[in-house]
Write the structure tokens for this entry.
Amino acid sequence: MKQPVSSINSAPASLLDHFRCDRAAEIAEAAVIGIPNEQWGEVGMAIVAVKPGHTLRPEEIHAHCQANLARFKCPRLIEFVDALPRNATGKIHKPTLRERFNATKATDKVAS
């Protein structure tokens, strides 16, 4: 089942598949959630866990997405975590992510 990430209905799976293929060396796991936005209703936020010994900056992910994906599929915000929360069956627990990242911070860099 596809979960829309914004009012434009970009499926998180397409973004995550792209990340996993092209940035597999650096990204351990990633999730995309929709977070509230006054203008659009919701915008996509990628939450990325980087593999030990690797570093990534939000600007690198934004540039990579803009070069390889349609603009509406690019996440507007990027957050980094050590690991994504999991439920009892081992699936990424998106309700926890939505609760944690529901309000954007002043330090968030929004892609133009």
